[in-house]
Amino acid sequence: MAAEKPGERNDFADRGVANASSASQFLTVAEVASLMRVSKMTVYRLVHNGELPAVRVGRSFRVHAKAVHEYLETSYFDAG
């Protein structure tokens, strides 16, 4: 891949795609299920119901770690 010259556009940056370090913040459904201590089916249900945003990669989904943490923060239940 050629180095970007001054004045050239970085198409990836223009589309909001960050560097490789932030790409590692995307989790598989299995990783999300493990983190939340639920089944993969529960994660799929959250994704399909629109409660947990995900990106489709081929036939699988990737969920941004920030989306998982935001979902958990908004899901606290006060039983008091």
Automatic annotation (TrEMBL):
UniProt-recorded name of the protein: Helix-turn-helix domain-containing protein
Pfam families from the UniProt entry: HTH_17
All residue ranges annotated as the Helix-turn-helix domain in the record: 26-74
Molecular function per GO: DNA binding
Lineage: Bacteria, Bacillati, Actinomycetota, Actinomycetes, Mycobacteriales
Superkingdom, natural source: Bacteria
InterPro entries recorded: DNA-bd_dom_put_sf, HTH_17, SinI_DNA-bd
